[in-house]
Amino acid sequence: MNYEPSxxxxxxxxxxxxxxxxxxQGLAAVNGVELTAAWSRRAESVEQFTNQYGGKACSSLxxxxxxxxxxxxxxxxxxxHAYYSMAALISGKHVLCEKPATVNLSQxxxxxxxxxxxxxxxxxxxxxPFFPLYQKLKQHLLTDPIGPAGYVRAGSAVADLSxxxxxxxxxxxxxxxxxxxxxxxxxxxxxxxxxxxxxxxxRFSGKEVDMFSIFQTQHDSGYAQLYCGxxxxxxxxxxxxxxxxxxxxxxxxxxPTKATISYLDGRTVELDEPFTHGGLNYELAxxxxxxxxxxxxxxxxxxxxxxxxxxxxxxxxxxxxxxxDGE
Length: 327
Prior knowledge:
Elements (H helix, E strand, L loop, with lengths): L8 E6 L3 H10 L5 E7 L3 H11 L2 E2 L3 H5 L5 E4 L6 H10 L3 E5 L6 H14 L3 E4 L6 H12 L7 E7 L18 H4 L1 H12 L2 E9 L8 E8 L3 E7 L8 E5 L2 E5 L8 E6 L4 E5 L7 H13 L10 H18 L7
Parallel strand pairs: 1-2, 1-4, 2-3, 4-5, 5-6, 7-10
Antiparallel strand pairs: 7-11, 8-9, 9-10, 11-12, 12-13, 13-14
């Protein structure tokens, strides 16, 4: 289908939990896109969701995929990302899937092969690079650089989740590495290039999944030190160092609004760029632009970048000893 600027892009949502509400907050701010249908494994959540936002409440995945939709947003937990992505692609729908795109690299390769065979757009939902602050920072460095980045330090640890939170579920692919580290993996790869080595440590604290993990990585251009966790409280900022200065992206760096660039010559540059509508509107607008331009891969969240993030998660889990059923 040729998506002209005036063509409405019709979305279906798979999964009606917390992140889907934030997605709808963002969707309301993007022109030329609408919610057409929704489905969830929990029927009551679908009714509540469509009562609030509109669209058709579907009683099955098949009904959703047979609906008059162009694309799906997959907002479920990672255990089902690969299955729903491939089902949507096979049914002829473009896919925007929450991070992590799949459980492991093997699953991701299957999804990407289906997308290629179908000639459809598949993009992993990784929001930071689309935020106004992140883009303003990259633009500033084009004319006032810190030199090539050689070190990245980033992380987040949140100690206030309820004990029944799905992030703690082994069956739903929980744990700090799978739920938090995709962001850190993105940052390291975005600034340092492909990973060449990784060393990780993690502890489980009585759970079946890792509760706190740290890993350091070697890349084409330097090194990264990253952490993620659920039983300690971490600051959530990021540091990026180059030979001519360093950048601090202030907390929460994955929803960035402020950055400080400290230069070797003593200058300091402060960047302040708030975001609106929850922040997912920026990646959604990018996804819709790709559709209108008939592109099957994002030049920002490339398929190779998704592969690189998944390689880091796979390697970190291997070293801390976390394997999921079927692996």
